[in-house]
Amino acid sequence: RLMADPGIVRARAKIEATIAGARIFLAMRDAGEDFADYVWSFTDGKVLQGDGRHVPTKTELSERISKDLKLRGFKFVGPTIVYAWMQAVGLVDDHSLDCFRRNAG
After folding, report:
1. Other CB atoms closer than 10 Å to residue 85's CB: what's the count?
2. Could you tell me the fold of the domain covering 2-93?
3. pTM score
């Protein structure tokens, strides 16, 4: 059914990885591990501040998180996509120095 949905990526491996990732997430929850606590543990609960001049595509931290997610069974979580995700969820503030959103978190 999902493979026929034109509104999503229809790569079987990515669909299967998404379903498997949801199961891993639920297993973590069922074991009493909060995903937000897990994620923020990598930064000691603090937003990481970029320098405002250079935005990396990956970092040592995104490589560590990627490796840990892969050990847990998640797929398609390489260090570059993990870094983009870190920016999207607010773990890192990479807004440029003149951006009104810098330090808004």
Report:
1. 17
2. Endonuclease III; domain 1 (1.10.340)
3. 0.87
